[in-house]
Amino acid sequence: MRRLAAVAALLCVAWLAWLHETRTPLRAISAPAIEFDVPPGANPTSIGRDLQAAGLVRHPLVFRALVALRGSGPRLRAGHYTFEGPLTLEQVLDKLEKGEVARRPLTFPEGRNFVEMAAIAAGRELDLARFLAAARDPAPIHDLDPAATDLEGYLFPDTYDLPRGRDVEAALVRRMVARFREVALPLLPRAEAAGLSLRQWVTLASIVELETAAPAERPRIAAVFLNRLEKKMTLGTDPTVIYALRLAGRWDGNIRKQDLDIDSPYNTYRRAGLPPGPIGMPGREALVAVLEPAAVDDLYFVSRNDGSHHFSKTLAEHERAVDQYQRRRRAARSPR
Fold it and tell me: What is the DSSP letter of 213?
């Protein structure tokens, strides 16, 4: 009986010790947050040691025992974690099982070129020069677009979780290209069936993206440009001139009449057809708009100055719209 009582007492003590180790928080409420990395391929033994070194668990052996009891080994997720507050060992393990990694979201809006994207990245403490260097390397897209001299048009605008570690900028750029492939490749056969190469499709979509902020207008804007291409007309679109001015180091935020004469393959007032390549990063809606243009005969459009456009089939109608929405507005603004 004494032996049974002793064994029972030992089991009780062991159980209480187990509860203390697994369900009693190690850190105080006021303790600062701890950043913790689980490398890819790390095993429970190394993770337990690292957790102890970070002050998140008392004993690595207990961590390993809990992992074994729960069968958590295959579910432990690599990544960067932030541990805040008085977490128990069970809560720490829950976080690692669920892969609740610390997020650093960064959003790139549609229509930005890669220089503007680099500036956005630099605003989140990434290195501007390294991002630009990665964006100027066309290797990640050469299998799809051998003519690409950089990644303009192929860094998909979206929200990304910033990677950590070395070469963050290059890793982010690779992820953006991968996201472009994920979105565009299922649609590419439709572009090719319409007689457009990947580069032509993305180039036209980038122009559509920059010509209107109204999603409902994109298919009609795309139709105008496709109609003009079919009739061998120049596209005559300001965003391509702005891109040419940027390349020449002459863009100051304003486009002037003399700028429309800039000698550049991107000047679609002087050069027929599409420019040599994309002028920014189109989103999925702009890519789809080129594949699903509105069934209209429009050849012109002009801004109504309220975010929408007036569309016209003839030059005479377009001139009247320009007079209504642009010339009279400028005259009303000029001093008398």
Answer: S
Domain holding 112, by residue range, is: 105-184
Provide, rounded to the nearest whole percent, the portion of the chain with pLDDT above 90.
58
CA dihedral 112, 118, 120, 121 (to 10 degrees): 140
Tens-place pLDDT, residues 282-332: 999 999 999 999 999 999 999 988 889 999 999 999 999 999 887 655 544
Residues 294-322: b if buried by 16+ CB within 10 A, e if exposed:
beeebbbbbbeeeeebbbbeeeeebeebb
Considering the domain architecture, whether residues 83 and 41 belong to the same structural domain is answered as: yes
Are 45 and 116 part of one and the same domain? no
Which pLDDT band holds residue 104 (cuts at 50, 70, 90)? confident
Residue 98: exposure state from Cβ atoms within 10 A (0-12, 13-18, ≥19):
exposed
Among residues 71, 68, 74, 67, the alpha carbon closest in space to that of 93 is found at: 67
Kindly state whether residue 11 falls inside one of the protein's structural domains. no
Are 160 and 59 found together in one domain? no
